[in-house]
Each structure stands twice: as C-alpha cells, then as structure tokens.
Amino acid sequence: MCRLFGLHAGRTAVTATFWLLHAPDNLAEQSRRNPDGTGLGVFDAHGHSDVRKQPMAAWHDREFACEAKEMTGTTFVAHVRYATTGKLDVVNTHPFLQDGRIFAHNGVVEGLDRLDERLASLGALRLVKGQTDSERVFALITACIREHGGNVGAGMVDAIGWVADNLPLYAVNVLLCTATDFWALRYPETHDLYMLDRRGAGGAFELRSDRIRARSDHLTRLPSVVFASEPMDGNPAWRLLEPGELVHVDADLNISRPHVFPDPPRHLLQHSDLSPTAAAAQRDQGHGGAHGRNPDPIGPRSGVR
Q1: Domain Glutamine amidotransferase type-2: where (predicted)?
Q2: Closest by alpha carbon to 74, among 285, 262, 222, 287?
Q3: What residues pair up with 105 in beta bridges, in sequence order?
Q4: From CA 155, how far away is CA 159, in angstroms rounded?
C-alpha cells in the first residue's frame, strides 16, 4: 500500500528526521510487496521547496531500501510508493511539484486518455512528465487552481469533482501543500486518512508506521498538525477524516474541514474491477485496519500508486 504522511508546523521552521522504511522481508514476500519509490518534500521558512525522491525496487536486494533524511522546514510531505501505473523512475515517484505546490496521492483513477484530453483543453498536459494517474490528477488540480485565480480549495473541489463525475475512480486521497498552507482530502471511503491535531503541543514527537517514521525534538514543544494513512502512535487524538472531507490548515494552524463531496463518485470502482496489478497491491491493509474494523468483504482496500 502507498503510505502518505504530511506535517504542517505553521510559520515556524522545525527540524525533523524522517525514515522512509521498507522493513526486511523474505524473498517470497518481496515479490508481492514491492516498495517502488520513496520521496520527501519540504518547504523551508523562506518558502523554498526541496523535493527529494528515489525509485527503489524491493527485489534488487534482500533488505528493503531504507533512507534517512534530516530536514528543516515548516511543511513536510512523505510518500512511499507501490506502483500500478508507470515505470519505476524518479519522474513517477511522489511527491510532485507544480506551481510552487507539493502533492502526493494514494488511490486509483482510470480513464487516463479522457483525463489527458481534459488537461489538453486546459493547456495543462505539459505539466505531466511521467505516466502516473497521480501526476495527471495533480495537473488537473493545478489547472483548476489557475482557473479559480489561485484559490487552492476551489481548484481542488473543481478538479476532483470533474474526476468523480467523468472517470472510473477507486480513491483519491490527496495531500497538497505550500509553505504556508496544507490541504488533505479523503475521498471516497475506500482508503483511510487520519489527522492528528497537536496544536496543544506536549509529549514526545516520534511517530512511526511500518514504513514511515518521523521524529523531531522541536515538535515536542511546538504546535503542528499531522496527516497519515494510519495512526502512527497510540495517541487517541488521531481522527479519521470523513469521506469527502477537505481539511485546510492555514499558516496560523487554524483548521477548517468542509464536507465538499457528500456523494460517492459516479463511476466508483470496486476491488473486483481493478486490474490484476492494482488488485494485488490492495492486500496490504484492510479498510480501517489500524483500528481493527472488519475487513472489506470484497477484499482489502489499501492504496496503490
């Protein structure tokens, strides 16, 4: 499953150490659990972006690739990729950068020929450098933000609304950020996306899942808001976003969370509709598995990208 992680510390630059992990597995498991890329995007206190990413194929070594980075910034986005579309290449590895915004995605969108036609009509197809549906969805969001005069929230709603109305869709969980603001969308209910409100800072900041870990001494005493595909510690404050909920965190860490998509996508894909490659990547975590809810009867629903 692809893993998403996002962190916003408002106007304060903090130092955080990230481990983008693929734990050791036997060779049989590696053939099914192929970590295909890791990436980390950061905005520093001056608004400059730094996106570092690397495609990594699990079968190249018995030990899954492990990379640690210590970076300073106000905003962070980390992603571990499980590829279903596009080559194992840097150009297809998250996060992506367009118009000074960093983006990562967990989900499956089909009908890419039609999406390319839409992008071409908006003059945005040139933004796409690789083969993934994720980068295409980001390009559509970027084009719609331009159409809305730079209003990010309106552009996201416009773009994802068009995708939901016109394309076969399994999930579009999205993290999008600038140096000052952060947006997170969970849509529909297929995959989980959690928020941890740490604006009343206190306690150690050391979060870990099985593939992403983040640690920061600064954030033990400074406020922040965190997003992740699953709860990364035992804090009971982790909150599962509602399907269709778009969370916006501004530079002062004010949070708004309108429910922008009350209805499911028009062409919602089921697990049985997916290609063998995409379906195989769904076995990593059941829907809501972090909280022990019952698995989806049609099979696990984990993110692929």
Answers
A1: 2-252
A2: 222
A3: 174
A4: 6
Instruction: Give the pLDDT score at 278.
Output: 67
Distance from C-alpha of 296 to C-alpha of 81, rounded to nearest angstrom:
22
Question: DSSP per residue over 129-175, as a string?
Answer: -SS-HHHHHHHHHHHHHHHTTT-HHHHHHHHHHHHHHHS-EEEEEEE
For the chain, what is the radius of gyration of the CA atoms?
A: 18
Strand pairing class (37-43; 75-81): antiparallel
To the nearest 10°, report the CA torsion of 227, 67, 88, 298: -40
Residue ranges per domain, the chain?
3-291
Instruction: Give the pLDDT means over successive 10-residue stretches in the chain (305 positions).
Output: 87 88 41 60 93 60 49 90 54 86 93 97 96 93 98 98 97 96 97 96 86 89 95 95 98 98 95 73 45 29 32
Per-residue pLDDT tens over the stretch 46-66: 999 998 876 654 334 333 344
- CA–CA gap between residue 248 and residue 257 (Å, rounded): 6
| DSSP codes, 242-271 | PTTEEEEE-TT--EE--B---S--TTBPPG
Q: Is 206 helix (H, G, I), strand (E, B) or coil?
A: strand
Q: Please state whether beta strands 49-54 and 37-43 pair in parallel, antiparallel, or not at all (unpaired).
A: antiparallel
Q: What is the pTM of this model?
A: 0.84
> Whose structure tokens read 């740490």?
198
Which stretches of the chain are DSSP H helices?
A: 27-32, 112-121, 133-147, 152-166, 276-280
CATH of domain 3-291: 3.60.20.10
Neighbours of 180 (CB within 10 A): 16
Closest C-alpha to 104, from 198, 171, 40, 33: 40
